[in-house]
Amino acid sequence: xxxxxxxxxxxxLFPNSNLRTAKRRPALVVQADNLNTGLPQTVLAMISSNxxxxxxxxxxxxxxxSPEGISSGLRLDSVxxxxxxxxxxxxxxxxxxxxxxxxxxxxxxxxxxxxxNNFSKEKLEENGxxx
Length: 131
Fold this sequence. Notes:
Elements (H helix, E strand, L loop, with lengths): L7 E8 L6 E8 L11 E8 L10 E4 L4 H6 L5 E12 L3 E7 L4 H11 L1 H15 L1
Protein backbone atom coordinates (compact mmCIF):
# COMPACT_ATOMS: atom_id res chain seq x y z
CA UNK A 1 0.00 0.00 0.00
CA UNK A 2 1.30 3.41 -0.98
CA UNK A 3 1.72 5.97 1.78
CA UNK A 4 -1.37 8.15 1.69
CA UNK A 5 -1.59 11.78 2.72
CA UNK A 6 -4.14 14.52 3.26
CA UNK A 7 -5.57 15.62 -0.07
CA UNK A 8 -5.15 12.25 -1.79
CA UNK A 9 -8.09 10.93 -3.77
CA UNK A 10 -8.49 7.22 -3.04
CA UNK A 11 -10.83 4.44 -4.19
CA UNK A 12 -12.61 2.58 -1.42
CA LEU A 13 -15.77 0.60 -0.69
CA PHE A 14 -17.85 3.40 0.87
CA PRO A 15 -20.86 2.31 2.99
CA ASN A 16 -24.28 3.78 2.35
CA SER A 17 -26.09 5.44 5.25
CA ASN A 18 -28.14 2.31 5.88
CA LEU A 19 -24.87 0.43 6.70
CA ARG A 20 -26.20 -2.57 4.76
CA THR A 21 -24.96 -1.68 1.30
CA ALA A 22 -21.87 -0.01 -0.08
CA LYS A 23 -20.47 1.33 -3.32
CA ARG A 24 -16.90 1.45 -4.60
CA ARG A 25 -16.20 5.15 -5.10
CA PRO A 26 -13.59 7.84 -4.79
CA ALA A 27 -13.06 9.52 -1.44
CA LEU A 28 -10.74 12.24 -0.16
CA VAL A 29 -8.23 11.79 2.66
CA VAL A 30 -9.11 14.56 5.15
CA GLN A 31 -7.16 13.61 8.27
CA ALA A 32 -3.91 15.31 9.15
CA ASP A 33 -0.65 13.85 7.89
CA ASN A 34 1.37 12.10 10.59
CA LEU A 35 -1.65 11.80 12.90
CA ASN A 36 0.11 8.82 14.52
CA THR A 37 -2.85 7.38 16.42
CA GLY A 38 -1.29 3.94 16.38
CA LEU A 39 -4.28 2.67 14.42
CA PRO A 40 -3.91 1.71 10.74
CA GLN A 41 -6.92 3.72 9.63
CA THR A 42 -7.75 6.86 7.67
CA VAL A 43 -10.60 9.41 7.76
CA LEU A 44 -12.18 10.00 4.35
CA ALA A 45 -14.81 12.31 2.84
CA MET A 46 -17.18 10.92 0.22
CA ILE A 47 -16.85 12.11 -3.37
CA SER A 48 -19.97 12.02 -5.53
CA SER A 49 -20.55 12.77 -9.21
CA ASN A 50 -24.13 13.84 -8.35
CA UNK A 51 -23.85 17.58 -8.96
CA UNK A 52 -27.30 18.14 -7.44
CA UNK A 53 -25.39 18.07 -4.14
CA UNK A 54 -23.35 21.23 -4.82
CA UNK A 55 -23.87 24.72 -3.34
CA UNK A 56 -23.62 23.77 0.31
CA UNK A 57 -20.87 25.17 2.57
CA UNK A 58 -19.88 21.63 3.64
CA UNK A 59 -19.23 20.61 0.04
CA UNK A 60 -16.56 21.46 -2.52
CA UNK A 61 -17.04 21.12 -6.27
CA UNK A 62 -14.20 19.72 -8.39
CA UNK A 63 -14.50 20.32 -12.12
CA UNK A 64 -12.35 18.20 -14.42
CA UNK A 65 -11.49 21.31 -16.44
CA SER A 66 -9.78 22.89 -13.40
CA PRO A 67 -6.19 22.24 -12.23
CA GLU A 68 -7.64 20.44 -9.18
CA GLY A 69 -9.80 18.27 -11.42
CA ILE A 70 -6.87 17.36 -13.65
CA SER A 71 -4.68 16.28 -10.71
CA SER A 72 -7.51 14.53 -8.85
CA GLY A 73 -7.69 11.41 -11.00
CA LEU A 74 -11.49 11.71 -10.98
CA ARG A 75 -13.36 10.65 -14.12
CA LEU A 76 -16.32 13.04 -13.76
CA ASP A 77 -17.05 16.50 -12.38
CA SER A 78 -17.64 15.79 -8.69
CA VAL A 79 -18.51 17.15 -5.28
CA UNK A 80 -16.52 16.40 -2.12
CA UNK A 81 -18.92 15.98 0.77
CA UNK A 82 -17.26 16.78 4.10
CA UNK A 83 -20.64 16.17 5.71
CA UNK A 84 -20.32 12.47 4.81
CA UNK A 85 -17.19 11.03 6.47
CA UNK A 86 -15.98 7.52 7.25
CA UNK A 87 -12.96 5.94 8.91
CA UNK A 88 -11.54 2.87 7.16
CA UNK A 89 -8.62 0.55 7.68
CA UNK A 90 -5.78 1.49 5.35
CA UNK A 91 -5.91 -2.02 3.90
CA UNK A 92 -9.40 -1.24 2.52
CA UNK A 93 -8.07 1.53 0.26
CA UNK A 94 -7.77 0.11 -3.26
CA UNK A 95 -5.75 2.77 -5.03
CA UNK A 96 -4.69 6.43 -5.07
CA UNK A 97 -5.61 7.76 -8.53
CA UNK A 98 -4.70 11.37 -7.75
CA UNK A 99 -4.67 14.22 -5.27
CA UNK A 100 -5.96 17.76 -4.92
CA UNK A 101 -3.43 20.52 -5.44
CA UNK A 102 -5.13 22.92 -3.02
CA UNK A 103 -7.19 21.77 -0.08
CA UNK A 104 -7.90 25.06 1.70
CA UNK A 105 -11.53 24.88 0.51
CA UNK A 106 -11.75 21.42 2.08
CA UNK A 107 -10.56 22.84 5.41
CA UNK A 108 -13.24 25.53 5.28
CA UNK A 109 -15.89 22.94 4.42
CA UNK A 110 -14.78 20.74 7.34
CA UNK A 111 -14.95 23.73 9.70
CA UNK A 112 -18.53 24.33 8.57
CA UNK A 113 -19.43 20.65 8.98
CA UNK A 114 -18.15 20.58 12.56
CA UNK A 115 -19.15 24.13 13.52
CA UNK A 116 -15.56 24.98 14.33
CA ASN A 117 -15.83 28.62 13.28
CA ASN A 118 -18.98 29.07 15.34
CA PHE A 119 -17.42 27.20 18.26
CA SER A 120 -14.35 29.45 18.24
CA LYS A 121 -16.47 32.59 18.01
CA GLU A 122 -18.73 31.40 20.85
CA LYS A 123 -15.70 30.56 23.02
CA LEU A 124 -14.21 34.00 22.45
CA GLU A 125 -17.48 35.67 23.38
CA GLU A 126 -17.85 33.41 26.43
CA ASN A 127 -14.32 34.19 27.58
CA GLY A 128 -14.93 37.92 27.10
CA UNK A 129 -18.03 37.79 29.33
CA UNK A 130 -16.25 35.96 32.14
CA UNK A 131 -13.45 38.54 32.51
